[in-house]
Amino acid sequence: MESIYNKTFNELVDYFINIGEKKFKAEQVFDWLYIKRVKSFDDMTNIKKEIIEKLKEDFYINNINLDKVERDIEVNKYLFTLRDGEHIESVLMRHDYGTSICISSQVGCNMGCRFCESGRLKKVRNLKASEMIEQILKVEEDIETRITHVVIMGIGEPFDNFDNFKKFVEIINYQKGINIGARHITVSTCGIVPKIREFSEFPYQVNLAISLHAPNNEIRDKIMPINKAYPLEVLIPEIKRYIKTTNRRVTFEYIMLSGINDSLECANELCDLVKGMNCYINLIPYNETNNLGYKRSKKDTISKFYDIIKKRNISVTIRREFGSNISAACGQLRSKKEDL
Ligand code: SAH
To answer: What is the residue-wise DSSP string for 180-216?
Structure first.
């Protein structure tokens, strides 16, 4: 038994061929699941009884449960319970260009970035593609609107769950399904180099963001353990290779941590590091969390840092802040049971 949302369209076609049925059944089922959004096989009224019974033997539909929604003006935070009792969170953001959802890719995370609240809960398990998809379906049902953009920047490291991530993209991108354009999907990684290589061969034009957060190994080693495995002299050439192979622009995320990585020397070093790359830098005002001891850089420091990068003719933005009132901001998602 598995969730039917784990099946790509082609896998469902194979499934029907294997049970001796016509492949257009896959189209009908996709239509019921992703266009009409039924919650039960019994509601698939144009499919004959025997097939419905067979589907019920092999799959379930309802998988994750929405427990709680916290609402702010531009942001909603959703808490879900999974079939095995684990919890995850998603965040919905309203923009003038549409609505985006930030989804979780794992229960917990093993990357251990020192500044990130989500990473304090060690990885329990990967999410299935179905559990990522259902975050979208449940949130769309709640807001009664279609989501236009998806970022995989919630709890977890998506490149540590690469196969499910790829499947997730294939399913939500499928035209006669949820139909979210690949260019409206962004995946963020802390820098797992072999997966960046594989991602450059992934045939969907999904945007890549790299959590860089430091301009040299000395600082990056201190705040991101992954840098020990893939230091900058390995990571940066791999990203350059990715840009060359795919002809796509990469985003560098850079959290502004007071006294850690926000000096003017750091700004210059950062520019030297990314010079000539097809990229842009997204400066992220750090969201302080209670227990981790890091402080957000002062407004003035952030704008000076920004000016230096701008003067060097590198594209740069300061990330708008969302959701700190309801602890829905980056690095604040935790999915702890006490939240329930
Ligand atoms: N593991 C992936 C996906 C998570 S993305 C990655 O590391 O990219 C979450 C983003 O929010 C990352 O850029 C992360 O570094 C950033 N982040 C984590 N804690 C934060 C905090 N307290 N304030 C602002 N950004 C934070």
So the answer is: --GGGEEEEES--HHHHHHHTT-SS--EEEEE---SS
Confidence of residue 338 (pLDDT cuts 50, 70, 90): very low
Q: Structure pTM?
A: 0.94
Domain boundaries, the chain: 2-60, 64-339
Query: Is-catalytic flag, 102?
Result: no
Contact 277, 250 (CB under 8 A): yes
**Ligand 1 centre distance from Cα of residue 103 (Å):** 12
pLDDT at 340 over 80: no
For ligand 1, which residues put their CB under 6 angstroms from it? 111, 113, 115-116, 153, 157, 188-190, 211, 253, 255, 284, 286-287, 289, 330-331
* Element containing residue 304 per DSSP (H, E): helix 299-311
Mean pLDDT, rounded, for 247-273: 97
Which of 188, 208, 319 to mutate to test ligand 1, by most ligand atoms within 8 A of the CB atom? 188
Pocket mutation for ligand 1, best pick of 91, 102, 104, 153 (most atoms within 8 Å of C-beta): 153
Architecture of domain 2-60: Orthogonal Bundle (1.10)
Q: Which CATH superfamily is domain 64-339 in?
A: Aldolase class I (3.20.20.70)
pLDDT band at 327 (very low <50, low <70, confident <90, very high): low
Q: Rounded distance, CA 107 to CA 96, Å?
A: 31
Per-residue confidence (pLDDT) for residue 40, from 0 to 100 = 96
- Catalytic residue flag (residue 89): yes
Rounded mean pLDDT of 136-164? 97
